[in-house]
């Protein structure tokens, strides 16, 4: 299976047979040969983990390599022969200098991390040209990462495909990508570009924000390495990384803001919450959309009340019978901000009497690989008069399905779940309901943003 090379390299390190990268090694023909360049700023690795056929790479001390010999003939239904590549960060205890990796994806500096690459492709062979971004739940510098492997395919030649199956599409870094997901002991999320390119300059956060929004990664995880290279199945001579960079700001500077988001619309408004949706922005500056800021005002001044990596947001904890105004602003991977959208005005429902409204709080009882139970969802009448009935709404993450709900009836529309009870609820009284749901394997999300009315 692809990426078993990581296990092999770990064993070689443990036995002392894998030496630290040498400073000067212009041609590498050893299966796991590697060389540090630019005073160990980057490491180039031959990395023939999936075949016994010959492969040699000519290391470019300026920041790349060329595959000069490649006799591979692997079947396209199986694993590639290897992953000749250049990287920054830590890969099985071989760490570069000055990368600041591992870095937690919630760190303030994470949004400024960029990488760029320029490649050359031969006219024959079966291969992909791809980035490999590794994430681990811990700041790991050695061993196998167990969080997420994010692959960014700039090109593919021949009848090959990523691990798993296609789960959607995404518009990132100025292009459209197929999104694939599989799990081989860790989450593998692959982005396959709709049109071939020989170069890419992007913000790491552009792709990882999409990974997190799909539930395949966590902000608490650490980026451990950024790698760029090729996975050859057949042939591969002539593949080349002409240049590679990684760091804060990368090799290019994106100063172009995204376009203005569409005017928000509101739905599912209750006494304490509302759900906003808007038209997507586009980004042509190269760093790609990173998300949206949601701005709210009750007077003249707008303040940010939340962020979203999709084109919707549920605002909770609002006051009953109160008018709010909302705008949305897009943000790209270089933290450029778009113009603010037009305003939508929302007035919450009156709720259950003076000081009224109702509140809903949810507890996750248990989770497993592809499902969970939420119980109890506690509904409390905060007013001074009886509620003749109540509704609780919450967004259901993409790919999730409710398989049962008790002590309430429910409907699902456009990804929003509405739970209802026709029974009355006295002042300051509480009741509860629960439900069970399924989710895609490897997805870590559970619903949030419950509103009651």
UniProtKB/TrEMBL annotation:
Residues 1-24 form the signal peptide. GO terms for molecular function: cellulase activity; polysaccharide binding. Residues 260-351 form the Fibronectin type-III domain. SMART domains: CBD_II, FN3. Residues 351-453 form the CBM2 domain. InterPro entries: CBD2, CBM2/CBM3_carb-bd_dom_sf, CBM2_carb-bd_dom_sf, ConA-like_dom_sf, FN3_dom, FN3_sf, GH11/12, GH12. Residues 253-275 have a biased composition (Low complexity). One of its GO terms (biological process) is polysaccharide catabolic process. Keywords: Carbohydrate metabolism, Glycosidase, Hydrolase, Polysaccharide degradation, Signal. Pfam families: CBM_2 (PF00553), fn3 (PF00041), Glyco_hydro_12 (PF01670). Residues 249-282, 421-453 are annotated as: Disordered. Belongs to the glycosyl hydrolase 12 (cellulase H) family. This is Cellulose binding domain-containing protein.
